[in-house]
Amino acid sequence: MRSETRKNTKRVPSFRKLLRTSKIKLDNKLKNKQYKQQSAAKKYRKEQKKLREAVRDAISRKPFPLEEYKKKQVGKFGKREEDEEEDALPLDMMDEDDLKLMEDLAQKASFLTRDLSSNEPVHVKKRKRESVIDKYEKVPRRMQTEPEKEVIHLLPIKDKGGIIPQTVEKPVVNVAQDEEEDTEEMEEEEDFSEEPLPVFTPEEMAAQRRQKLQERKMHIAALASAILSEPDNNIKKLKELRAMLMEQDPNVAVIVRKLVMVSLMEVFKDIVPSYKIRPLTEAEKATKVKKETQKLREFEEGLVSQYKFYLENLEQTIKDWKQRKLKKSNVISLKAYKGLAEIAVKCLCELLVALPHFNFHNNIIVLIVPLMNDASKMISELCFEAVKKLFKQDKLGYASLGVVKVISGLVRGRNYDVRPEVLKVFLHLRIKEVELQKDSEDIAPKKKFMTYKEKRKNLSRMQRKWKKAEEKLERELLEAEASESKEKKLKLHTETLNIVFVTYFRILKKAQKSPLLPAVLEGLAKFAHLINVEFFDDLLIVLHSLIASGGLSYRESLHCILSAFHILSGQGDVLNIDPMKFYTHLYKTLFSLHAGGTNGDTEIVLQCLDVMFAKRRKQVSQQRALAFLKRLSTLALHVLPNSSVGILATNRVLMQTFPKMDLLLDNESQGSGVYLPELDEPEHCNAQNTALWELHLLQRHYHPTVQKFAAHLIVGAPTEGSGALSLDLSQRPATELFEAYSMRGMTFNPPVASVTPRRKVPSHLSWFSADFLSLFCNDELMFVQKAVIRS
């Protein structure tokens, strides 16, 4: 048995040996092994079948008494009945005791397998024709006087006489003996446990833990440095480092696993090549190559396998945390799994951004995208930032297309029950004017090289020679340019945008009341100019119905307006559509802007005004422009300084774009009628009959930049001269000025200079410090200063 076990337990071949062994050789070895196993199993089944047949036949054939054999023989051989009667034993001449003894023997003699009443000789059949059953029947049997015991059938033995079955009695379990053995073992364990274990103080345990942790850190650092120094020769150490992810010491398991995760991530970022490693074909494996090439192949295969195992470990860590699943070893507690999962997510995000070209990048995308909708805020933000970085650095579009596909499937699979941030990631896609670039490329003639016939026909011999050299140089320059094909990039961007728009349109159609609607409208506002013209009418109808329904918030309605005008300002110029309803809605809701710190909607309003007036100046009437100029000037009195600066910058654009806006700078009313500020129709409010008196109040505003804009608008917004603005203010758009003068960080732009008073401040007003006074703007500061001096 020992030899058999030694044969079965062969040495497992090493990883390097498996790499060197060809696939054909491995397949042949596997086929031979399977054939041997099948033949051995077939032989064993045949022997067992023969044994079962022999036992079944022996059980079915029980010996009959002599009288029954006699009756059967009479029935079978009717012609020889008279001869048998003459040769039969005269039973009436025998004593009763002898007759009874013969009958008992006939019933008990189980070895009688032939008819004793027949006159046929015993050895009629040849020895060769004797069957297995006949040989088995000739074996003497034992009377069943003792109670039957359970038997275990073994493999039979075959000798000259035939097959001899082998059996063994099943051992009877002695319960009392087992109990005694158990008690003895328990006593031994108790004796062993009685030995005193070493007891450590908390200080000693902490020191021991620090020592173990330091040893693990040194080991990790040594392995990582060895791998980074010579990756080709130390690929086995990469496997050793990855094996430390299964650290079993409960004192240092959590920290060691975190360190190994981060170390492996940095190692892979350094040693991974700048190309994707593909598996070798059968023909490539069969061909002989140089030692350097073979070494490179082994390194690449080992690197891909270890990278795959590492990603699987990270995935399993995240799954265990999500499922609140503990391992059998219980080395790590359930609370520690969250920290491990966060480190695993960080590593995956780093690899997603750093290695978009390498193997298994799509697998990382499939892991990261669902975590964007995770309940943990930290993990979801990590995934958001990683996807944003990926979109920003993806120049060609392969990675962006993969992420967009997974996000679309996630939104549809969750029945649109995802966080709005998942769709807001689409806003960071690097896709601009794709369709316009495609049209320009189609119109522009492509450069073609002359054929041989054209050269022969149109050029001389010397010209053909120079032309050939020139074309060769141009081809080399095109190959050395190393820039991706524009057509391929255009195709990828088009496919990506199609998936984005399909996701947006599904939500507009099926989930209009979901929290994803603001993100959808914001995305449509950014990419609306890339939508096909065929969908413009339907999309504008949907946007207007959403606004008219009244179920949208103010910010959502602004996004609808912005989307509609982006559509009409791009390819929608050719359409004959009057968006008067959108103008009216914006004019009516301008006073809904928040005047406090949460004035983020002002930026969207400024974008809408820029698209509605600056880019559609030919489609806007003078009455409409005057009405918006008057209402915006009134609005600038009520909002924060940065909003006022942005609104006044928009008024400056209106006054420079539409020449007759200086009507509002004159006190005399023009035309007939009275200005109706409460009317919601900009075309019929008679704005030409009023004046911009708000600018005089804004000239006394506490913010210096607002004062400059108000003074500039009062003199008619000139582009040059004494009333012109500085280049810093005149060349910046309204949205940029709004962000530049923002007060989110509780800062004042420009900073207020502290003014020291000329006279000493009295003691009862000493709480007026310079820091407190610096919070006021110039006018208020001077007013307080004068009041202090007078007192």
Describe the structure.
With 791 residues, this protein is mainly α. 60% of the residues lie in helices and 2% in strands. The chain has helices at 2-8, 15-20, 23-60, 66-76, 81-87, 96-108, 132-137, 175-193, 202-229, 235-243, 253-271, 282-286, 291-322, 334-354, 361-371, 377-393, 398-413, 420-424, 434-443, 452-458, 461-480, 486-510, 517-527, 536-549, 554-569, 580-588, 601-614, 622-635, 641-657, 694-698, 704-714, 727-730, 734-740, 770-773, 778-790; strands at residues 151-159, 162-169. The protein has a two-stranded antiparallel ribbon with strand order 1-2. A hairpin with a 2-residue loop joins β1 (151-159) and β2 (162-169). α23 runs parallel beside α25, α24 packs antiparallel against α25 (554-569) and α28 (622-635) packs antiparallel against α29 (641-657). The longest helix has 38 residues, at 23-60. Residues 1-7, 68-89, 109-129, 435-447 and 761-791 have low confidence and may be disordered.
Mean pLDDT: 77
Helical fraction = 55-70%
Rg from Cα: 48 Å
Strand order of the largest sheet: 1-2
Q: What is the global morphology?
A: elongated
How many helix segments? 35
Beta fraction = under 5%
Distance between the termini: 114 Å
Major beta sheet, specifics? 2 strands, antiparallel
User: Which residues sit in consecutive blocks of at least 5 with pLDDT less than 50?
Assistant: 1-7, 68-89, 109-129, 435-447, 761-791
Task: Supply the helix-strand structural class.
Answer: mainly alpha
